[in-house]
Amino acid sequence: MVVVGLGNILRKDDAVGIVAAVALKDLDLPGVCVVAGVAEPLSLLDAWSGARLAVVIDGTVSSPPTPGYIRRCSVGDVVDSCGALSSHTVDIGRTYALGKALGNRVPDELVVFTIDIAATDHGIGLTPQVARAIPDVIGMAVDEINRNWH
Q1: Virtual CA dihedral for 93, 94, 96, 101, nearest 10 degrees?
Q2: Among 78, 97, 100, 148, which residue's Cβ finds the most Cβ atoms within 10 Å?
Q3: Is 63 helix (H, G, I), strand (E, B) or coil?
């Protein structure tokens, strides 16, 4: 199993996926590889290939934004809403579709947690609303891992 934190640590709330992944790595969960600091979804192809479960955590820009709001998305949600779940040039859905086309370079199961973000300008540190979502998304990710562990 793999957990991937997407984002940019130098773009305030866009670092939320990385911050959550680092916190999950600190839990030292057996059988779970944690990859923090993936800046572009295309890098997911290497991170999740061959995984039974991939949990991806990423900040998203919504309109109107509800900073700190967490969504759980399945592979169907991600593929069906290409372009709507990411602040990146190539989103997770398109990356998943590309992975399928390249000879099944996708995980057996994909769960994406998006967290609404507010500030993406240059700087370090999460806004308080987004920072408060970290413990909740960690708990949700651990629940997914536990469900797939047995």
Answers
A1: 150
A2: 78
A3: coil
